[in-house]
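Annex B. Sample input.
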Amino acid sequence: MYNKLLDLSIIYSFDKSGYQRHARLFSELNAAKFAGKHFLVTGGSRGIGGAVTQALLAMGAQVTVTARTQQDFDDNFAGQADVSFQALDLSDFEAIQTLALGHYDGLVLNAGGMPSQPSLVDGQFDTIFGAQVVGHYLLLDRLIEAGRLAPGAPVHWVASGGMYLHKLQLDDLGWRQRPYDKVKSYANAKRAQVVLNELLAQRYKNLVFSCSHPGWVGTDALAKALPGFTDRMGKRLRTAEQGADTILWCLGQRQQLKSGLFWFDRRPRGTRVFFWTKESEADRLALLALLESVKVRY
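Annex B, continued. Sample output.
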């Protein structure tokens, strides 16, 4: 009962103390499930993505990392074997179509960010939705169409608990008719990722889809995007390694995992807390139609 009350408080669930309580029931990750496998991790050079990359390498995997710039990769992975870098801005849809592809045993769709000023992508999206939803969808679609994901490969979306407060919104995704709000845009993008995780699990039965939120993690990106929140939480924020744990666990479960679920601290969780955040089936299908309308132009 005490643990349930702490989880209901949110703060004592999403923070470091929540991870520490939940982790008492965790078993060690099985390195044999990762050794010799090749993973693609977007945004894998720093923060949570960097922790995922580092852990995969430690367990004997090969990792290809994408990011907009190479500096963080060089700072964190210079000289390490079995890891390579490819420059990729996920808001550049043409670049996604020309990216050199390998063959992968797993995919982590992690690249994120919360820019303070909006930039218009493809004439209709802000950078957050354009990169984290549309860009990731186009990359995933290209990998599938090219046969570059192994049968049964895990595909993991890294979302955020912020999506719990937001209903899927598909109008004015470029923020041209209202004042830009990076927090709302980010929450909307993460809600869209959760919806896509469910829909794509139904479409592609030969892959294992999962999505998670990592809790409140003290990354440089969070400090830049939300300095006030970072200062208030201080040492209560999770480490990047703690934020990466459930991502890695889902990857390791592979086909033992039920495809399309949403995870937090290695447990499946509901995707809605408030009834008003439930999207209609029409909105879910409209999201897919929107993404397909972009796909045919690139």
